[in-house]
């Protein structure tokens, strides 16, 4: 049994799901963006499964108005299960139960949409004084890539905060939060790990400190809540988590960045969402053998952009 002075393992995850999903209107007028299917499972289910694989068995979803369907999805459905059982359809019963059995899922309302930092602050009572992970629903990390596990290991060893980074190139950095880093501090079997010395939200390319962008995985200490409370509204009039993390850096709290080099599926806009569906479907054992050849044939028949019709 661990003594009180020893760090406790991180077991809690926070998933903000209060956004309106305006990029996917009109579909998201009635269906939360997080429940849009990526092949045959909602994007949100992939995220919860990732947390559970990393040992985070308690998951808090920070919701908003018109998100009741998310609570329903992670609840039991006795009528549906009974109907499937009557048909002897055990495979679909198992599929239905996956979402309810994967983790303990809790819910809290954000109340007002004041930004990601404000959404994370709603988890303070749930988290207490423990480190915790934040997973954003637009990024699906392939189950074969142990990004979150590596981030938890770095936080357990060095404390402070750990953020996931992706080299998006100078031409794309203005879409993201960018970081300044110093030499590699932690070496291991996984991705590169840097000490973060500064960060800025969506800088012009010429002013970006690097091409390393913050993507939607964080492991945070409980001190981040005080930093968020002390953070005034920033870009867009919202309380930015990036600004609170910068305050941690300025206060001397160690912040590390893990540069992810694995497979990531972006479901944040319509084009990337379509790419994610295709990539994941091709990888599936039950769909890939038929879908792959069809896709190759379909692509072969596509007209080349700018070419004259035959």
Automatic annotation (TrEMBL):
Family matches, as InterPro entries: GalU_uridylyltTrfase_bac/arc (IPR005771), NTP_transferase_dom (IPR005835), Nucleotide-diphossugar_trans (IPR029044)
Gene3D superfamilies per the UniProt record, alphabetical: Spore Coat Polysaccharide Biosynthesis Protein SpsA, Chain A
GO molecular function (one): UTP:glucose-1-phosphate uridylyltransferase activity
Keywords: Nucleotidyltransferase, Transferase
Reactions mediated catalytically: alpha-D-glucose 1-phosphate + UTP + H(+) = UDP-alpha-D-glucose + diphosphate
A Pfam family hit: NTP_transferase
Stored CDD domains: UGPase_prokaryotic (cd02541)
Domain Nucleotidyl transferase: residue ranges: 12-280
E.C. number: 2.7.7.9
One GO biological process term: UDP-alpha-D-glucose metabolic process
Family of the protein in this entry: Belongs to the UDPGP type 2 family.
PANTHER family in the record: UTP--GLUCOSE-1-PHOSPHATE URIDYLYLTRANSFERASE (PTHR43197)
Name the record gives this protein: UTP--glucose-1-phosphate uridylyltransferase
